[in-house]
Amino acid sequence: MKNSEIEELIKKEIDKTRKLIEVYKEETKPVAPDCTIDILARNDAMNNMSRVSALLQQAKAKLAALELSLTKVGTPQFGKCVGCGKQIPIGRILVRPESLYCIECSE
To answer: How many domains would you assign to the chain?
Structure first.
């Protein structure tokens, strides 16, 4: 696979992740206390907000890794595990372009 194709794949994943982050940000906005919902619905909303908040943090970490990967495309550092320095298999990069670690180091 060519560097330009990998770069395009990463850019698409960055766009998708940025959109997801915006959705998560919207879903984690606090519920106004004067909103007319019962206590069970409020508790459910707070639990959901907690889950979405965790997803938001994961998406932000993924975005940072994708942006770092994008800066390495076309350089000798691209596709190298930041843990051990070994080459990350291209299959892993194609499935998870944000991968900064080989399978062994990621476990």
So the answer is: 1
On whether the CB atoms of residues 63 and 17 are closer than 8 A, the answer is yes
Q: Which of 33-42, 46-55, 76-85, 95-104 has the lowest mean pLDDT?
A: 33-42
pLDDT in tens, 77-103: 999 999 999 999 999 999 999 999 999
Q: What is the CATH number of the domain that holds 71?
A: 1.20.120.910
Q: What is the pLDDT of residue 39?
A: 66
- Residue-wise burial string across 42-76, b where 16 or more C-beta atoms lie within 10 A, e elsewhere: eeeeeeebeebeeebeebeebbebbeebbeebeee
CA distance 88 to 72: 13
C-beta separation of 17 from 62 below 8 A: yes
